[in-house]
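Following up on my earlier thread - several people asked me to post the actual chain instead of describing it. Fair enough. Here it is, all 700 residues.
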Amino acid sequence: MTPPAATQDIGVTDLPDDRYFNRELSWLDFNARVLALAEDASQPLLERAKFLAIFASNLDEFYMVRVAGLKRREETGLTVRSADGLTPSEQLSRIAARSQELVDQHAKAFLNEIRPGLEQHGVRIVSWQDLEEPDQLRLSNYFSEQVFPVLTPLAVDPAHPFPYISGLSLNLAVTVRTPEGGPEQFARVKVPDNVPRLIRVEADRRSGTATFLPLEELIAAHLRELFAGMDIIECHVFRITRNADLEVEEDQDEDLLKALERELARRRFGPPVRLEVGDDMTDHVLRLLLREMDVEPDEVVEVPGLLDLSCLWQVYGVDRKELKDPPFVPATHPAFADRETPRSVFATLRDGDVLVHHPYDSFSTSVQRFIEQAAADPNVLAIKQTLYRTSGDSPIVDALMDAAEAGKQVVALVELKARFDEEANIKWARALEKAGVHVVYGLVGLKTHCKTALVIRQEGSSIKRYCHIGTGNYNPKTARLYEDVGILTAEPAIGADLTDLFNVLTGYARQENYRTLMVAPYGVRRGIVQRIEQEIEHARAGRKSGVRLKANSLVDEQVIDALYRASQAGVPIEVIVRGICAIKPGVPGLSENIKVRSILGRFLEHSRIVRFAGSDELWIGSPDMMHRNLDRRVEVLVKVTDPKLVAQLDSVLDSTMDPATRCWELTSAGNWDPSPADGSRVRDHQVELMKLHSAKEQQV
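Reply from S.P.:
Thanks for posting it. Predicted structure:
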């Protein structure tokens, strides 16, 4: 399978040029909604700290990938404009302004609300001067024994060139001078990343309190030990972000694994795209950093207070249940519940399809059990599975290795190019190969992003195929945090389609059309647009019509234009999008029949569901409505036909669109307004689903 040629616009007529929101600014709006959760006083304090950490990590990745891509286009002279008509330079300028605004807001939430609030409950992040003398003495000993030996102060002078600064590392810019006077001299000290960033201060941790000292504060307080005989003039914290977007030159004749390993080694040397500095940094130190690291002034972000608040994950780890959401234990799906021993997944699926909704339905007692039982069942002949992201301790991978060692035919398509999981996937690929699994590294020019598993089982004189197709990765850790749906089925047509798909992924088969699936890069956009056009025909004929689309992102212009045309024809359209959204709802004459909502909360909304009311079709799967998913990835949507499963998914969509559901609504001006806004009864979509699934488990 090779990527298709550039697709033609489908029926774009009489649509205004300014019909899209900017993708990158829309992403920043998404991160602003994450920040709003941290600012929400109704959230438990440690949950608010968690959202501050998520915001920080999100922004890091945004700069490493999205901003890096824009800078690369700007530097190479590419003048390709975004869908909303902006050049790379114009986008970078707007991103810089909006990012600084959000960083200030982020720091303010930490310094003025969350840090003081936590302190009132005995959870403190302090400065060196705040510590009592016994604590200072104990931490000085800790510094001498654990930190000092790994520090390497690097001078900058004619004999010592400016050192390489690794991406996302925390550093101290130190200025020193001899006691006799003379010129100031500069040195850099890297804050080690193999020592906890926040150091627990308490000698006795049984009190229930928790006090943390940032590691850079400890180092700064002991600089005289690093620069013996010198006077310390200044010390400032800074952090660089580098381009981390891999560009693997894929060649049919080269081992993809080796090519990727080579690029991973280069990633750490990517050009800088952002310099974060404390707001107390002096101008002359900043000018030195800009000059030596080849950073432009508009790439500087001033951060009040602590840099890199992703360290708040450490604070979140404090055992203070009253400052967190109540614990939630996923329920075993009623179809798999058994009071004595786990029921055979295969026997269950012979009775009918099962829809699992994570994290409300347990991943370990459904999808994971499916693979584990397949690995242990002597009647199973083969297992074929795609792996995009998995966890460091993966029972799914262990089961595949057990199956191979037991003599089953096992094929694992490990996507080596899963961004920021490349090293982990290389490790798993080698472990799987060593166990005898047939490992395929994806397709040249495409990422394999679909979530599919196929089990072939001997049952008497016939062969039976069992399948799982989902919206989320085969990762038991994220399955407890991400909201996803999946179907487990023994439907012969789906089994035949997955067999054909795996032949495409592992061999030279070239297939574009399937019985029950839409498969990108050929069939998803085309299939979605065709079905939207069918809804237009239903509306014009006076029949029932409607489109409901739940996704992480909605960016693809052809899908958006089809939705605009449907709106103009009177088709009601409801979009539930977690992150980026380029469609403009509520514009008279264009999109007054389009509503867009965003739901963020305890779990990361990750499922992709598309519902066509007039055609009475419902599809679930892996693709978002983005160019990369529809043109440069292998993605799968499966049609859900069982009326009971369709009703379950309809109830999920109904809940997201309930007027009382807490959410953000997108306006035609591009604002995300909190809703409901009138103070009426408010319901939490995720809390309601937790209650529903817990009640179902108790009924079993």
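The first helix runs from residue 23 to 39. That should answer part of your original question.
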